[in-house]
Every structure is written in structure tokens, then in C-alpha cells.
Amino acid sequence: MPGPTVYYLRHGETDWNVEGRLQGRHDVPLNVRGRAQGVHCGEVLRDLFAGAGRDPAGLDYVSSPLRRALETMELARVVLGLAPKEFRTDPRLAEIAFGDWEGSTIAQLHRSDPAGIAQREHDKWHFVPPGGESYAMVAVRMRDWYEGLTRDTVAVAHGGTARALIACLGIAKPAAAPLLDIEQGAVYVFEGEKLTRYT
């Protein structure tokens, strides 16, 4: 039996996204474009709910505890006519941890840790950066989170957690999931093994 529907938002853009830096657990705020993306996601959700005759207040709302996700959720909820801060956070939705690599770009890591980058490119799903975690590890907590859902949910989290959930639900194979592009400013609707993107 399929679980509840998840309306999934990746947080809006940050300056580190623009610079290509690995963010992981670093608490980087949204930039101007990222805040606009949060508003846009609220508009997309509003239209989806209106089209389905759904009251936005009837869904659960949960966010990663990282600031960029919290800000995105608050902006979207305002558009939906909901109190901006009345939602839950869940540490299982935090971004994949890149450990010692956080703050670096891939180009910098090619110079500072070429062996590590080579290992990551060989098997991105299982690779664990120094002090960080693998996509396989993130998938364990994302499966646990998803299996605990009791009703349709709006979730704001990250690109890495989205890729792990996609693999957990069998939408893509684990080897392929880390290569998927998860857009900012889009709403991804998970309905069992079906995934639809709305922009």
C-alpha cells in the first residue's frame, strides 16, 4: 500500500550554491533569488491544492532544521495563508554531511583530495567523505522518516535527501540517484513510485 503523498521542496538558492560549494550541514542562509524561489514554491503549492480542492491547512508540514530550509518553508507557508512558523522540524531531513569537504568546491577537492574525488566518482552512492556520510547512510534515515508519515505532507529539505528518498522509493536505482538534478524553485510530488515535478 503506498504511503502518503509528499510535496517536496528543495530549499531555495544560497550564495554557496552559486559558488558551487558543498554545503552539507553548514547553516547558509538564502540569498535574494532563494527567497523568491521560496515564494514561487508557495504559489505552485497553492495552485496544486486549489486544483485538487484541498485545504492547505489539512496537510502536515515538516522541514530540515537547517536555516535555508526553514526560510523556504516560512516563505511558502505565507503564500498559502498559513502561520509562517507553525510547522515541525525533523533532523532526519538535514542535508547529507560532507564533513571535512564542506565549504569546498569540487574543483578545489580535485586538487586537495584527488584520491577521495576519484573514489566518489567511482561509487557516489557508498562513498563517505572524511567526517561525513554516504548517500546510502542518508537513505536509511530518509526511509525511516518516510515510513513514519501518517498523512500527506509538505516537506522542505535538500538535494541530497531528495536523491536518497528517490532511491528508497524505487524511482531510480541507488547508483543513478546521486546523479539526479534536484531543482530549486520546484515542487516534487511523490506518490508511491511516481514522481512529478511542478514549476
Describe this structure in words.
The protein is built from seven helices and six strands, in the order βααβαβαααβαββ. With 199 residues, it is α/β, with parallel strands linked by helices. It has one domain: Phosphoglycerate mutase-like (Rossmann fold, 3-Layer(aba) Sandwich). The chain has a six-stranded mixed beta sheet, sandwiched between helices. It is globular and about 55 Å long. The model has no long low-confidence stretch (mean pLDDT 97).
At a glance:
By secondary structure, the chain is of the alpha/beta class.
Q: Which CATH class is shown?
A: Alpha Beta
Reported CATH architecture: 3-Layer(aba) Sandwich
Q: For the report, how would you describe the main beta sheet?
A: 6 strands, mixed
Low-confidence stretches: none
Number of helices: 7
Helix content: 25-40%
- The secondary-structure element order is EHHEHEHHHEHEE
Q: Give the CA-based shape.
A: globular
Beta percentage is: 5-15%
What topology does this entry show?
Blueprint: E1 6-10, H1 15-19, H2 32-51, E2 60-63, H3 67-79, E3 88-89, H4 106-112, H5 114-122, H6 135-147, E4 153-157, H7 159-168, E5 187-191, E6 194-198
Parallel strand pairs: 1-4, 2-3, 2-4
Antiparallel strand pairs: 1-5, 5-6
Name some characteristics of this structure.
alpha/beta; Rossmann fold; 199 residues; single chain; 13% strand
